[in-house]
Amino acid sequence: MQIPQLLNRLVPGLLEVVRHLPYGGRVxxxxxxxxxxxxxxPRPRPFSLASDYTSWLSLTDRTFTGRHLPVAVPGTVELxxxxxxxxxxxxxxxxxxxxxxxxxxxMFFAQWFTDSFLRTDRHDWRKNTSTQEIDFCQIYGVAESKxxxxxxxxxxxxxxxxxxxxxxxxxxxxxxAGGASAVKSEFEGLHDAEFLVNVLLRDVSQDQKDLFxxxxxxHGNSTVGSIALDIVFLREHNRIAGILEQxxxxxxxxxxWDRGLDPAELDERLFQxxxxxxxxxxxKLVVEEYIGHIAPYxxxxxxxxxxxxxxxxxxxxxxxxxxxxxxxxxxxxxxxITTDEGKREAKSFLRDNNEVVVARGVEWLIAQCSRxxxxxxxxxxxxxxxxxxxxxxxxxxxxxxxxxxxAAQLQSFNDYRRRFGMPAVTDxxxxxxxxxxxxxxxxxxxxxxxxEWYVGIFAEEYPDEQFLGDLLTTMVAYDAxxxxxxxxxxxxxxxxxxxxxxxGLKIIEETVSLQQVVARNAKSPGKVFxxxxx
Length: 534
Prior knowledge:
Layout (H helix, E strand, L loop, with lengths): L2 H17 L4 H14 L18 H5 L21 H6 L10 E6 H11 L22 H4 L3 H7 L9 E4 L2 E4 L3 E3 L5 E3 L9 H8 L5 H5 L13 H26 L13 H32 L26 H6 L9 E4 L2 E4 H5 L4 H6 L1 H10 L1 E3 L21 H11 L5 H7 L15 H11 L7 H7 L10 H15 L12 H4 L1 H9 L3 H6 L15
Antiparallel strand pairs: 1-8, 2-3, 4-5, 6-7
Helix pairs in contact: 5-10, 5-15, 10-11, 10-15, 11-20, 11-22, 17-19
């Protein structure tokens, strides 16, 4: 028996044993994190999109997106046309390739999560609008001024409203005297109004706008999945703020807090503490459930505070252009989503916006998405509506992605394999066993050394126990671990009762799944089903 086959048989059983050992998850986490966090030299990287060479700007100005490798030497390789590359991604009618075990809920979570820090500046593709941290800007906004617009400014709560006995964010729009929709005065400046109205919402009806919620990011209402998650976590923030306020008033917790806080001071302390708890809750779900699903064999990962202390990779976060691009998992969008009311075309379901969320409830939506299977990440599996232009002047998502990859002049697939400690491939047959894909890639690129990185990471074949190809897995894991685990709230002198309160630490430590968060904010907790596996 060959070694890989033997490992495939032994690893799941070994992990199942480790999962039940005291501190087993912590040991696995230490091993997995060290394996991936040291696969490439640590930050600071000498290059960014600020210039093609190392400069003070490229080392310090984080408004410019970073990069792992310097630019490819221009003009040395003739590349296939954008149209030809687009065809490598297009899914043929009725030819969807389903994932092995990944749900549409995972797909929505991935989009919602990465939209918070993979934020390309619309006016200058070299720049980003990210804080570079996992900071829950999905519900808090990208700046303090925007956070205050979204806050109730009482009891540490976020603004919300009750609809049919359930809590939702406040509405973003209101009708003018003439019947048109306008952003409410309290939310003016929350988002770029021109981009919001003329680009994101240009095909949205007035009735749909009536149900749009005021949330942290401009894309928050773009899909039913994003708004469902925003609603769940807004409820969780307000739930936690309520617990903290009640304990303060009863003088049972927060012993270090000044007992003479006036209402404004108390609101600020409650809000900031609840926010701290929420950010670490998100980090916990990301490491233990989300990355755990991406990793081969679903290892029992744990969020280990201070795990980054003293490590070479414990450096300030700086999102790279490669990390931005490698997360374009458009092929996960299925043709159909299965609901208990029958199959629905994914395109229409994704853009039903908030009507279905308000009418059926968050728990119903999350359950349907958790039971419906996503597409498999790879070539020839991206739905046509993400490949074809809606309008001549506005490129589709996949086209914009390829254009960004070309503009950044990224080096080849093999260059990145070497950068991350992997051997270069010498033949297209080492990328995939699919003869038809081998031929198509060879026709376009002639030599495997000329294969573009963005095409190669999605062409790379992988077994059922993996979620992604080897290089893509390695690059995702490197950036995910070194970004999540260097969060300042996990530092040894910060992760303590003074930062979170005793009850806050208990909430963090007892939360292990998205299912729990949804259930404790649901009208019918026993009926909740939230899963990344399908």
